[in-house]
What we know:
Layout: H1 8-13, E1 18-23, E2 26-30, E3 36-44, E4 47-55, H2 61-76, H3 81-97, H4 102-113, H5 120-133, H6 136-144, H7 152-167
Antiparallel strand pairs: 1-2, 2-3, 3-4
Helix pairs in contact: 4-5
Amino acid sequence: MANNKLSVRKIDALTTVGNYGDGGGLWLQVSKWQTKSWVFRFTIDDKRREMGLGSCKDVTLADARMLAESFRRMVRNGTDPIEARKAERRAKRAERMNIVTFSFCAEKYIDAHRHGWKNAKHAQQWTNTRASAWPAHELAAINAARIAGKSDDQIRRLVIDLIVARSAGCDL
């Protein structure tokens, strides 16, 4: 099976709807709307699979070949690249979901204590104070600290440092 059958010039010239093989499971797909995208075809556990690699506008021929090579390696080692990509996306999504920021904690604190304040105005004052007391760039610094994994002392130190810097006239 010959690899590298396609060239950039040939890809640019292709307008006929169809699939054009580059070799090694890498295919260029030309749609009826003249869009071009990369597909990696492979067989694993006696099951034929196709995996989209992206548009030709976003993924160059060289990048598509490198992706196909890494996916061929995965298939040789018994790993389904589609399932591996899904697992990676799930892990990233779970990581994003587990990030606890200062703002999130402040909102939860206000919600948890709202019932103990004399009236709804107090809860609104807390919310307004949180929003107005910290300029956006300082709040971003606190949020970037990601509360999860930080000790109370570390968070307290960050907030104190911001307050001291502000009172000294420093713009962070």
